Amino acid sequence: MDVITLATKPTILILGGGYGGMVTATKIAKEFGHNDANVTLVSKHNYHYQTTWLHEPAAGTMHADRTRMPIANVINESKINFIQDEVQEIHREDNKVTLKEKGQVDYDYLVTALGSVPETFGVGGVFEHAFSKWTVNGAREIKDHIEYLFAKYNNEPEPRDDYLTFIVAGAGFTGMEFIGELSERIPRLCQEYDVPKNKVKMYVIEAAPTALPGFDPELVEYAMNLLENRGVEFKINQPISEVTAEGVTLKDGEEIKSQTVVWATGVRGNPVIEQSGFENMRGRVKVEKDLRAPGEDNIFIIGDCSLMINEETERPFPPTAQIAMQQAETVATNLKALIKGESLQEFKPDIKGTVASLGGKEAIGIVGNKKLYGTSANFMKKMIDNRYLWILGGAGLVLKRGKNPF
Amino acid sequence: MDVITLATKPTILILGGGYGGMVTATKIAKEFGHNDANVTLVSKHNYHYQTTWLHEPAAGTMHADRTRMPIANVINESKINFIQDEVQEIHREDNKVTLKEKGQVDYDYLVTALGSVPETFGVGGVFEHAFSKWTVNGAREIKDHIEYLFAKYNNEPEPRDDYLTFIVAGAGFTGMEFIGELSERIPRLCQEYDVPKNKVKMYVIEAAPTALPGFDPELVEYAMNLLENRGVEFKINQPISEVTAEGVTLKDGEEIKSQTVVWATGVRGNPVIEQSGFENMRGRVKVEKDLRAPGEDNIFIIGDCSLMINEETERPFPPTAQIAMQQAETVATNLKALIKGESLQEFKPDIKGTVASLGGKEAIGIVGNKKLYGTSANFMKKMIDNRYLWILGGAGLVLKRGKNPF
Q1: A191 Cα to chain B: minimum distance (Å)
Q2: Catalytic residue at B184?
Q3: Domains of chain A
Q4: d(Cα B137, Cα A157) in Å, to the nearest integer?
Q5: Is ipTM strictly over 0.85?
Q6: Residue from B147, B190, B263 whose CB has the most chain A CBs within 10 Å, to mutate
Q7: A211-222 residue pLDDT tens
């Protein structure tokens, strides 16, 4: 009897070890019994990392290891199997997924939480010449590249200003948070490497008519003033036409020479979505209200690969960790309902607030209708980061890995 | 009367803030009265650094700032003036020196202690493609370059083995001490950047028939075995014919691909020597026994710009900090004698011993006739480093900046 019961346990496959995949796995481990399902999580790395913290190690204001944790330390291994591998394609008709190293794996239910890749918007040279990976590896590369340029500066026969010119493409959250950290660190880097501070140039270049599009204009102004006081120059409403080995060329013809172009203009869904034939917009699938892919009974898509329209603004919700985590909780509930033959929940995003850190003790944010500046926003940002750790690993993980707001 | 006394004080100009220049200045400050001479030290940087420590920051096992100290903190500013500038030429007939920024300065007595630059021995591509500067700036560049390659490694679509291949050209003291530090750090770098240790290749390439030519063969073997156990591969008796953007080409045609070639084959005297028309061999002037340049009454040359033949071996003494410092003490004494019209001392080197560190707690050395290995050699090495600090700044500097041998 036992053998048959085991054999008929449905198989749940979770693709992706980011916010969506990890919270799905954690919630399933909490709420499912051992005999409810075989659950497997597939992730490219054997560690989970917090994408929303990566602007700090990228600028060198936090060690990269503080943004990641071994997946084995977080998931309940008695309930969740883990496979370290890279997803190549989802075969919907066959209920199979092809992995790069380990071949094919079957599923009865699939949770696709594969995250995103940088969006170039057709600008040439991004992958060749800009830093665009918001991953642990990518962040370390940006940090070490910047330090290397500072180290090289005093070894050149003629001063190379492009070594000390830093361009951030995109004044969205990622770009603003990164330049916030970098501008905060520049004075220390100058001291460390004997480089005159007035030689350093920092640009944030944004194609849209404002920094942080869609965010409260008063807060945007606060952030821009603060960053300008640290030496950042904004070029707003100025699209980039090309990234080259020398720097960037703007649509209006201006060239800015720089050895460091950090690409942060936005993201598109993981290419596996397009590869697997899902109807999509820039790699994102417009999911049903129960978070399943249209026409698919057993495939959920969440996080940056999913697209949902905000009915109030009639625009898509931005791809955020907050929404991915909320979707993950709904998916865990819906998986249980699906297995038991019960009816599925509709997902309703509950935007609790948005906070952007700006380096040091500075931040801006909206919580409810309240605007936050400086230390109060900074406090809130740290609380949000810690709350995530709590969801993932309880108070123990907060104590071990959390951010002290004081 | 006082005014005339002041006006007739002779002017001593010391060129270079390395071991020779700093010890000359320190000794003069101790032994000369305020009315004996106007003394000025010229140095390119406003800090003095210990060249013989640079293999550590270059490999990233010590912070670069630990190898340097502000010159103003060390010299007695009531007795020694300091000019931060770069020496361009010595005009012997006019008793003048041209500085890059501040124009010409006069002297009555000149101490030339301008140190050395890398020697390429005619091998092409060294300055374009290899790291060759044993300076604070140069060490920081090597360290940050290596870390940057580790950071980049996991971001490449195809693994680039040349990112993890490190070539040291030259198995003299500098090359061996550097590979000692680097081989010691590699396991930590691999862990830090998620790089498999077996991907890292380290080569030491030496044109001579042995590593550490002239050193005790038993100690050389100890060092090579130890480094080989850490993964270093030696290519002895194999001259390099060219350094390229891809790596090195050996005389026998073999190519080794590497993004990091560290050039440590030896040095030649500062080009200012040749520029100023001194008779020289590879930028080194064969000085008289009293350390003056041949035919010059008022010009002393010490350190790596000076050449002295060891009468026992009939070969030149190697350019070492030990000899530069001993010469500096003699020069200070001879300057005083010269001003007073007394006869000058002959310089006699007193080689107290030679120790090479090999990373971690490992070292080799000769003190007197005694061979030292491992921790005892490591202890001696640290004592030598601390003794130098003592000469420069007394017990206070040892306490502040010294190396704890335990």
Answers
A1: 11
A2: no
A3: 2-44+85-118+267-351 (3.50.50.100), 126-263 (3.50.50.60)
A4: 13
A5: no
A6: B147
A7: 999 899 999 999
